[in-house]
Fold each of these.
Amino acid sequence: MTTTAPSSQLSTTSNKPKRLSDGVFAFLLVLPGLALLLAVVVYPLITALVTAFFKQSLVLPGREFVGFQNIIDVLTGEFSRLLWQTLVFTIGTTLFPFVIGFALALALNTRIRGAKVLRGLMLIPWLVPGVVVSFLWMWIFNANYGVMNALLEGIGLIDQPQAWLAQPATAMGAVILAKTWQSFPWMMVMLLAGLQTVPRELHEAAEIDGAGTIRRFFSITVPQLKGIIGLVLLLEFIWNFQHFDIIYVLTGGGPAGSTQTFATAVYETAFHGFDLGHAGAIGLLWMVLLMALVVVYVRFSEKGEER
Amino acid sequence: MSDRTLFQSPISRRQALAIFGIGAATATLAACAPTGTGAAGGPAATAGTGSFAPTDFKFSSWSLTEEAAAPAIKSLLSGYSGKEDVTIEEVSFPYNEYFNQLMLQVRGGQFTGAAHVDVAWLGSLAALGKLQDVSALTADRGYTESSLKAAQFEGTQYAFPWTIGAIGLVTNSEILGKAGVDAEDFPTTIDDFEAALVKLKGLGGGLIPYAASTKAAQLKDILIWMQTFGSPLVKNGTVTIGDDASVEAVAWYKGLYDQGLIAADVDRFDARSLFAQGRAALYDDAPVGRGAVTKESPDPDLASKLVPVSRPTLKAGDTPRALVWGGAIAVVSGAGAETAADFGQWATSDLDTVLADYELRGLPPVTEEALSSDVVASDVFGSTFAERITKTATSNPFWVYPQYAQIETTIAEAVQAVLIGQKSPEDAMKSAGEAAQKLIG
Amino acid sequence: MTLETDLPTAAPIAPVADTAGTGVQDASRRTRRPSKPNALRSERPGVRFAAWAAVIVCGGFALLPVYWLLATSLTPRTEVFAYPPQFFPSTVSWEAYESLFTNPTLFNYLRNSIIVSVITAVLSVLVSAYMGYAFSKFRYTGRRALMYFVLSSQMFPQALLLVTLYSVFAAYGLLNTYTALVLSFTTFTLPLCVWMLKGFFDTIPDELIEAARVDGASRLRIIHSIVLPLSAPGLVAAGLFAFVRGWNDFIFALTLAGPDKQTLPPGLVNTYIGEASTAWPELMAASLVVSLPVAIAFISLQRFLVGGLTAGAVKG
């Protein structure tokens, strides 16, 4: 196997004088995307973060510089709670879809009958419009006429209807479950794609050597899929960290703020509380946190390199 | 060979800086960019009464796409556009998002024309400085004094009252009767009320005696109980939440919750569904709920069993409390505003129009003429509701603050924390009061 | 260890034949994946049993809510709030479906959703293909910083961008247009698409490009007539992901698109979650009906969804 060939040789063969240099050409290729990112993400982000230092309302004109007041308010107020809840939500909605998606990918990668049809059916939760996912689960979890209560009462797990969305512990669980339901199909698809790159010869050879299914799973499948597993986990983590729609529609961050995450808190503060300064401060702290993560990550990987 | 992946790849600190360096460069740019929101809101422009040439305008309402209410609103619009030969552009957002979206649009100047608003929002909208004073157009049109007042803010008539009522207790007289409670002689004090709820609970069968709001979205309903217990909520700019009366009210509510006299996870929608199914004996609602409740009910006679009752009071003889509820049409300055104002006046006070709307939506009209018309006066539910509930209704003192929505949310979350047992009523109300005070400034 | 090897997307190069095998020219003929699937010829009963157990448990989790969606949509309005609910509606009512077809605004929302999602998918694939190619096959200063910037841009709090985006789009008169939605969603999907496509391009041998160059093809032409066709499965896969982003979004679609241009998620809420009541059967019926065409399209394209990832990025 070759490593990725050093592509720089491509540029050295170009002798025609009127052509743009490769660097300029590449920059032109990058330009549309870069322009979009700067206009739609970076510029709005910076203006929003700047408001962290102002007392500014979404609806009233004018603003007043208040230094670090908003940031102090957030840090001494909801910050630790939001951080904890965001982490619980993010980790939950990253791990559960992973486990379910992986189990399904493994199962559907065998030759059981109907695997193809099932693979298609499993995509449905991913394709139901996002808000409907929230409404569906709101409907299922409803304390007074939800099917979840009826089901659990039917099999005797609970003896009276529970208000799933009205108790902090179960509300977080419900939100995680709903998000899990929405995102496991994409995990399944990614992992299935990965599984299909594992050369069959490896398995066959191991089988001849007498390795059992479980052993082959850990000694062949998992190492072969290391890259894709890490990747889907990382992407899910990043996305869920800032996931908004499902929480917002399902619980609105309640009860008593117990399912509020950074993303919903930012929106609630800006659009319901009209407090742009406070929202900006939450956003700024979120950014600082992410930067800290990046730095830790860099440190960590550099250390790994030295060893 | 290479087996490196994203997870093992080191980024040097320099590279990490480079990533954020791009951000920093943009930050400088962004910081220089104007972010102000334009001129401060001056005095309201006044909508005139003189003759004018009708033009096209925009009308926004949350009811335009809503299946139940849309036919009434659509026929209203086609009536006016046919009469004046203008085109009305429809703007609509889901009810729960409507207020925020309208605020954004009005603030940014994207929306001008006639806007269907909840009277609770007038203070916030007026703060944007773009609502017109329509007092010249509401004079001598036969609007009732109380409905005009409901659509005023700091003495200025910021909107045409449209459908003004109140939020009060609605009961199912049949279920009350089974428990030996007479809907026509409903308990007038809180103690008797609670005793009646206990009796209802005794009927069993999973009946929820009182489907009071317990979800944050509508927990603001608790405010009227705080007032019933004697808390003024705000006095001379000072928030009084956290006083004894408000704490008592919340402790009482928590008591109902713990006894199962009110149920968890209920908002207005749930309350209506439960009530429609005969699984709740009473709940809080505005007249707008009647249509939904009767339509969803398996009981075809439910409409005749609906009886609105006065809210009980702390001591016998006190005035029952009720919260003003209602829709109004505000006029946002700008293109088409003049025609929009004419439309607002016509839609809310032209007798035929109002009565046609009443047939479809059943919401209480606002002119003396319409109220005394046969069709309105002969509606027992409507007139009882007006007599027992709307008559003594007052508006929420927080509505005058642009931050009122956030104040209500703060209080609702505190009450929720009490209900689920996270905080004591004293602590929760004290901190909620302080937070609300901070929002008012 | 070359500089190249520690890139996020570094993937061992696939043999030429395999890469070509995923190309359009013979995709229809070949049903096998580029690398052979690892499904074993002789599966033991234990494996079969475990596979079925996983399918039943996870599949139940996946499909029971879908069933409930269907059952609710068929329940008459007056029975839908009964408790305990009926797992099988005793009377099947089609009224919710009938009301769909008398509601023209719903089709307006569906049309908007499809327009926005499709344009987002196409634009996103196009923009990220150029970007991904520039990251994959060219070397220049600042390339890695740029790559990390693009990747990390998806970590930024999108909810926070809404206020400024609203003003920016308002300033350019783009509110209430498809443009505002498409630009936003395209940007949000860029990082993933760039990443996927770069991985794909990495597997295209430089020799192939070099050969075309020697033949006198311009760099743009190489992209359009060699690289993109070879990467078709990857393009489709990236496009499908971008499509879903546009299809699922609620809050941007609500805020940036006016009533005429609103997509399904806010549209459904607008229509069925009213001031006075929630029309559950109708909401469920509408959700099913609008999801169906997309589900069918995805199922028929799932070959690409999986295969498109296979040749490119997924190997670690």
Note: Residues 276-306 of chain A form the longest helix (31 residues).
Amino acid sequence: MNMSLREQWFSNVRGDILAGIVVALALIPEAIAFSIIAGVDPMVGLYASFCIAVIIAFVGGRPGMISAATGAMALLMVPLVKEHGLDYLLAATILTGIIQILFGVFKVAKVMKFIPRAVMIGFVNALAILIFMAQVPHFIGISTMTYVFVAITLAIVYVLPRFFKAIPAPLIAIVVLTIAAIYLNFDLRTVGDLGAIQRSLPSFFLPNVPLNFETLQIIFPYSLALAIVGLLESLLTATIVDDMTGTESEKNREARGQGIANFITGFFGGMAGCAMIGQSVINVKSGGRGRLSTLVAGLFLMFLIIVLGNLVVQIPMPVLVGIMIMVSIGTFDWSSFTYIRKAPKADAFVMLATVIIVVATHDLSIGVIAGVILSALFFVAKVSKINVKQRIEDGKTVYTVKGPLFFASVDHFIASFDYEMNEKNILIDFGSTQIWDDSGVGAIDKVMIRLMANQNRVEIIGLNPESKKLVDRLAIHNDPAAKMPTH
Amino acid sequence: MYPHILLAVDGSEHSVRATEEAIKVSRLSAQSKIEVVFVADFSKAKDDVLHSEGKEALEVARRKKISAVEEKLEAADVSYYVTILRGEPGPAIVDHANKKQVDLTIIGSRGLNALQEMVLGSVSHKIAKRVQSPVMIVK
């Protein structure tokens, strides 16, 4: 980054403050809804959003990016909260931070670059589907009025922005529909039914968990999953913000920053979070570019909670559900349908497999890891294609080998020769191939020995210097006493 | 006449037709220069990033979108250069045109998104309203 720290903070004061306020307004419903997904009080998500946004403003690597409590992270926490409770979640959040700091120090951002786009597309689609599925129990089969409120919310969030953009439409939906629900006395479930709101600043405390190996055993798998998913979404978001603003960011610093933010947030009663694609896009669209926008978003969010805490508990659940449906529609990658048709089959398969595995396991990290392994296997299969052509030239049988020769391609290579020949002159041309490992050398051995066993004269040409060195060092086919290598 | 012509394109059929008109206008005088403006749309940023292998691939993909326009300009041998803006297409072009005080703005009547823009493209509508230079909308 060649911007000075002063520029990162104060080069766009007006735009940053306005955008920060817009983001804070848009963050409230999401922070509450993600808390409900995780199965904790709304305050856990709100405190997390406040702490993470404020800390990232100082330690993040991508100015203008918004980090807070997110759906991806909330979804991972569900079983931990259900089985062990909030204190274990906070401990897991602290450990997540430590893991992410280590990832940042060891420059894992570079490794993240190798995650194929098919997996990333699968990731966002799976995330969208899980967020939607998490809403279903809150609106299917509750009451007719619930459906009506969900529908009105969706109408407001999709139609209103066409005419009026200054205030985020979800917030307008919340205010209008909450007032309507209160005054018209509709019987709807509210946020208050699912948890309490405290109108106070978060305070420092140690999670009430025993400091022993057993605790670590419980929280470590969750923390590792949270750390991976958090960094994945944060680095994807950072790339999107890079592209929107036409600037560069420091990915390893961002990884470390995410770690620091989660580490501290855990001590202040907040759940683990990460960067948010939707909110970051809102921030940049609203004119936010610098660190100040992130700081203002966090501070203004806290201010709103302290002022409006009483109203927040009265928000009808169907309104939040409507907003979350909007979030899931916005998260889903709708060009995936074209992608499935147009992308290479292996990529389309990896994308679908990632989605299916996540939806089946409810664990984004498992889907991502499986997707990466699958694409690695496909990649090996793709590059392991070796092509051996046979022709007769000046009474010689000439084999031309094309493609890399290594453990994955040796079987096909060995099967490509005609071992029925007797007393022929054979030439094998390796000019368009590269021998990657000892399996490749072994395969050449095997072929030579089998051909020479029938009194053929075999000659090798075109090995490049590195391959030649490997063959010379390891090959045993020149030794007339040699038998088939026993592998 | 018209030393600085702004030609707003989005890779659609209409922008190729707009290019043909821009070439005609630029031939009116020897010092005319065409600035081809393409906007990397904010609302497509997520899609673009997800579906590209990296920064360089994305850059190439965007240049490819305007390659038909560039081919036409090169074939006509007029002097031009390309500017890629970032933002929402309408406001981004308006800001740029007014800041650079261009002498003429040329744009296709509608872009790729025919579904939303049945009559007149919302981008060309915004430009016709807010750009200070004369505007040519090509059907």
Note: The domain at 4-138 of chain B is CATH 3.40.50.620 (Rossmann fold).
